[in-house]
Amino acid sequence: MSTSSPNNWPETFVSDTTMSRAVNRAVRAGRLRKLGSRLYTPNLRDEPEAIVRRNLWQIVASYFPGALIADRTALENAPAEDGSICLITEKGNDIALPGIVLRPRRGLGPQEQDRPFIAGLHLSSIARAYLENMRPSRRARSGSLARTLSRRELEERLETLLRRSGVEALNHLRDQIKALAPALGLVAEGDSLSALIGALLGTREDDLISPIARARHAGSPYDPDRLELFHILQRSLRNHLTVPCMAPSRDPVAAATLSFFEAYFSNFIEGTEFEVSEAADIVFRGHIPMERPADAHDILGTWRIVSDPTDMGHAPASFAEFLVLLRRRHGMIMEGRPEKGPGCFKSVPNRAGQTVFVAPELVEGTLSEGFSLYRSLETAFQRAVFMMFMVAEVHPFADGNGRVARIMMNADLIANGEERIVVPTVYRGNYLAALKALSLTANPEPLIRALDYAQRWTLSVPWGELQTTQAVLESCHAFLDPMTAEAQGIRLQMPSQLKT
Hints:
The protein is α+β, with helices and mostly antiparallel strands. The protein has three domains: about 5-135, no CATH class; about 150-215, no CATH class; about 225-495, Fido-like domain (Fic-like fold), CATH 1.10.3290.10. About 50% of the residues lie in helices and about 5% in strands. It has 22 helices and eleven strands. The strands form three sheets. A six-stranded mixed beta sheet has the order 6-7-5-4-9-8. A three-stranded antiparallel beta sheet has the order 1-3-2, with helices on both faces. Strands 10-11 form a two-stranded antiparallel sheet. A hairpin with a 2-residue loop joins strand 6 (about 95) and strand 7 (about 100-105). Helix 6 (about 150-165) crosses helix 7 and helix 7 packs antiparallel against helix 8 (about 185-200). It starts with 12 loop residues before the first strand and ends in a 12-residue tail after the last helix.
C-alpha cells in the first residue's frame, strides 16, 4: 500500500528509508506525529499511550519481525507493570515507546513447541516460559523490572495453575519441562522446577517462599482471591467505629418473639417462605406440615439455635472452636435435609449467579486464613460483619450457608451484649446487593452500612407479644416483597419514623 497519501497511513507504522521523505513532509504539514523511534501515527487526538497499546503487537512485529515473546511476558501475557515486553530476537536494542519498553535479547529462536502469534510473532510455550523464568535476571535500569519473574511469583503462578487445573495438569507440565530442558540448555533450571512442583504437590521437600505455596505444601491450601477480599473488608472495618448497640434486657416473651422473627426472616431470605402464622405453628406448636417437612425443619432448626441464649452467647476463641461451632450449628439447621450433608463441608463446588464459591479442597485453609483476620478486629460489630461475610463467601456447605453465616454473625454480637441483626424481607435486596458489591467489585462499604442500619432497626423495634410485634413490623414494611417495595419507592422504616 502506498503511504504517500494521508488517507493511506495506518494508525501506527514504523518508517523506513523508502518512506522517510513522505513521512517528514506529513509531519511538517501536521498530518502525522511521532510517537517514538521511527514510529508515527496520523491520529492527532488520542493519547500516545492509548495508541501504542491499541496497536501493540503490530508495532512489536514492525520493529522485530518474527520475534519470540519470552521471559516474564510469556507468562504474564501482557506488558509488565513498568511497560516491559521481553523478546528473543536476532538483533536490536531496547526501544522506549509511550508506556512501553521493548526489551530484546539474544537466544534460541522459535522452536516447534512454541506457538504462532499475532503479526508473525511467536509465543513461548508454557513449559519454555517457566524454564526461562527460572534463570536469574537483574533489572536493566533503575525503576525497571527484571526480565524474569521472582521465585515467589513463580510459586504463586504454579499454585494458581494447580488450584484451577488440578494435579494432572501440573504433572503434565512437569513432564514437558523435563523433556524440553536439555534442548534449551536449562537442565539445572528444569531440576529446580521439578522440585518446586513436587513441593506444591506434597511429594517432595523444597524451600518455598510464597505463603500460599507453603500453605499448599502443609496441606492447608487457601483461595488467595477470597483472602484479598477478606483483607479489604478487614481494613475497611477497622476504619468504621460506631457506638455499640447494646441489647436491652427483654422478658421471655419479647426474647422469644425476636428469636422467632430472626429465624423467620433468615429463612425467607433463602426462599423458605411461610406465612407468619404457619411458621408460628411450626415453632411454638410443633406442627410440621406434611407437604413441606424439610422447609419446616429448616425454620425449626434455625429457631432452636437463635432462641438458645447459651448457644448464641458463644463466640469462637480459636479456629478449632470455630469449626466445631460452625459445623454443629449447620447440622442443626439442616437436620431435616440429610441429603445436604448437615454439618459436613461440601464435596463438590457450588455457585450462585456470577459467584463461584471456594473450591471444596480450599475451604478449611481459606477459613483458617480468614479467621486470623477476624481475630484482629476490635469491636463486636466489626467481628460480626467479618464473620458473616467470611462464611457466606467461602460457602463451605452444600446448602444453608446464608443462614449459618447470619447465626455466626449474631452469636458474636450476643456474646458481647450487643443487639443482634435481623434482615427483614423488604431489606433482602439491600443485603444481597451489598454482599455482591464486596464479592464482585471489592467494595465493602455497602455491606457495612447495610448491616449497621439493620442492627439499629432491630434495636428500635419494640419486641413483645407475637401479634403486637407483627403489626409493628407490618407498619415498617418489613414483610413487603423487595421488588414490590422498590417499584413503589417504599423502604424499611424505623419504628420511630412511623406516624402515630
